[in-house]
Amino acid sequence: MTRTLAAVAAEAADCPRCRLAEGRTQVVFGVGNADADVMFIGEAPGFHEDKQGEPFVGAAGQLLTRMLSEVVGLAREDVYICNVLKCRPPGNRDPQDDEIEACTPWLVEQVSLIQPRVIATLGNFATKFVLQTAQGITRMRGSTYPWHGRTVIPTFHPAAILRGGGETSRQFGEFRADFELIRDTLRGLESPPERITVPEAPPPPEPVTASGAVSSPPSVTVPEPIGVPDAEPAPEEQLELF
Q1: pLDDT tens, 78-109?
Q2: C-alpha–C-alpha distance, residues 126 and 136, integer Å
Q3: Rounded to two decimals, what is the model's pTM?
Q4: pLDDT tens-digit series, residues 191-214
């Protein structure tokens, strides 16, 4: 039986899988619509997230919420927001390999249950992790990438935009353009394919005999249909994310 997202979050709340459990205030599992079409994945909780138990609640979160509203036309409650790591690393240091390995099953289950159609990776770490690439965010952003039947759109981490000067920075224009790409990608997924109308072929001319009379078509005996055994159903594809 498939678990609910709430059940997974409840189990993760007591996660002891790595050393980060010792210093955290609480697990920051994720927040938002459990049936969201868009999922945002960041790196790890920061100071404010660790205290409040919700991802992206500081200034970076406010910028994310603003871009969602102004550009994409969605509220924060319409999407799902989480991080690769569910606990804050001490001093906001980079995640370590064993911590990433311990947290990956939580993210896999989140994606499996939510089934987002678009995943936006926020920053270098999340982008490299999800797409398994060595390329940095500057080169990866601005494009879409197919990923397990979904579309991944990398963009800058909102905190990096704020550190770089906010709206006065060059990156802010690119950041906004990435959210426009998210919006346009969603619209493309919602639009039905263009209907193609095939013109009807004209009826064939009726056969005429040498005397000029219209002859009746010869009778045709239709053979009995040949029974074809039912094909075995294809096994349901298992979602293997990483």
Answers
A1: 999 999 999 999 999 999 999 999 999 999 99
A2: 10
A3: 0.80
A4: 554 554 445 555 666 655 555 555
Q: Which two tokens stand for residue 95?
A: 């995640």
Query: Which residues, listed in sequence order, are joined to residue 38 by a DSSP beta bridge?
Result: 118
Q: Would strands 80-83 and 31-32 be described as parallel, antiparallel, or unpaired? A: antiparallel
Neighbours of 110 (CB within 10 A): 23
Distance separating alpha carbons of residues 97 and 48, to the nearest angstrom: 24
The mean pLDDT value of the chain amounts to 86
Helix (H) or strand (E) holding 41, with range, is strand 38-42
Query: What pLDDT shows up at residue 2?
Result: 80
Q: What is the pLDDT of residues 148-202, one digit of tens each?
A: 999 999 999 999 999 999 999 999 999 999 999 999 999 998 755 455 444 555 5
The secondary element (H helix, E strand) that includes residue 190 is: helix 170-190
Sheet holding 80-83, edge to edge: 31-32, 80-83, 38-42, 118-122, 150-155, 145-147
- The amino acid at 105: P
- Relative to beta strand 118-122, strand 38-42 is parallel
- Which element (helix H / strand E) includes 145? strand 145-147
List for the chain the helix, strand, coil content (%; round to 5): 40, 10, 50
Which residue in the block uniquely carries the two structure tokens 């569910």?
Answer: 86
Q: Residues 178, 141: contact at Cβ < 8 Å?
A: yes
Give 91's DSSP letter. Answer: G
Torsion of CA 156, 77, 26, 12, to 10 degrees: -100
Which domains are seen in the chain, by residue range? 5-190 (3.40.470.10)
